[in-house]
Amino acid sequence: MTICTAKNYDHMSQIAANILAAQIVLKPNSCLGLATGGSPIGTYKRLIEKHKNGDLDFGEVKTLNLDEYCGLSKDNDQSYDYFMRDNLFNHVNINFDNVNIPNGLEADAEKECRRYNEIMAQNGPIDIQLLGIGTNGHIGFNEPSDYFTLKTNHVSLTQATIEANMRYFEKADDVPKTAYTMGIGQIMNAKKVLLIASGESKADIMFRALYGPVTPQVPASILQMHSNLIVIGDEAALMRVSK
Ligand code: F6R
Fold first, then answer.
1. How far apart are CA 196 and CA 194, in angstroms?
2. In angstroms, what CA-CA distances link 195 with 20, 60, 158, 162?
3. Is residue 118 annotated as a catalytic residue, yes or no?
4. From 65, 87, 100, 136, the catalytic residue
5. Each residue of 3-24: pLDDT tens digit?
6. Which ligand 1 atom is nearest residue 132's CA?
7. Of 26, 30, 77, 128, which is the most buried if we count CB atoms within 10 A?
């Protein structure tokens, strides 16, 4: 595990973007595993800048997103599909045929999980997986549980996650209660994992995830077993880790 302490969110984003950009430069048809949420927005901004400067070509890049809320259409500005277009895809030269996100409007969960597993098998292995972390240790939407999930699954979001994500919605009732997420096994199959975290609210979970027992009750703790894990956190998020 490589741990890199950034000065602040911007610095964290700069380092993460540099690592992702290097991956694309070295392998133009890289398969990127991508995340949504507040953590990667700055990273995506930096990647867009690099593209606009002529330094980064997304023409052959393939992407597999971690997760999607159930019940939201792609046009809903809270869907992860919308998020990805708004924060990255619409601003770079990615081929939309190479973009993959679970379909939150598919009501048949078994069918959608099977479809996404097949897409992952066809496009993988993921060369680099970008991850944020929930304050309860979730990665993707794999919530604390009695077991680690292997493949794409349909999950009920915990109250903690619903509350954490409420900030993006008008009212609590609008937050979807279920989602599709890549499984932990699929995340662990990525050749490289890039975990980013910022802010004091992530300090405890970063400590538990990186140095606590490996348990499905803290899903991110499995990352300790990954042979190529890079952690980039700002000083606040890493204050317990680097002490
Ligand atoms: C998002 C995702 C989630 C987030 C996590 C942290 O695609 O998979 O696991 O990474 O909820 O969210 P932020 O970055 O908003 O703190």
1. 6
2. 12, 24, 21, 21
3. no
4. 136
5. 999 999 999 999 999 999 999 9
6. 10
7. 128
Output the CA–CA distances (angstroms, integers) from residue 27 to 110, 126, 154, in the order listed.
34, 12, 32
Structural contact between residues 189 and 124, judged by C-beta atoms closer than 8 angstroms:
yes
User: Which pLDDT belongs to residue 220?
Assistant: 98
Question: What's the rounded Cα separation, in Å, for the pair 189 and 105?
Answer: 27
Average pLDDT over residues 239-243: 83
In the annotation, is 138 catalytic? yes
Q: Match 């380092």 to its residue by tokens.
A: 15
**Please, what are the domains in the chain?**
2-197+210-234 (3.40.50.1360)
Whether residue 176 is preceded by a cis peptide bond, meaning omega within 30 degrees of 0, is no
Extract the tokens encoding 53: 């400067």
Using one digit for the tens of pLDDT, what is the confidence trace for 184-214?
999 999 999 999 999 999 999 999 999 999 9
Known catalytic residue at 11 = no
Predicted local distance difference test score (pLDDT) of residue 243: 57
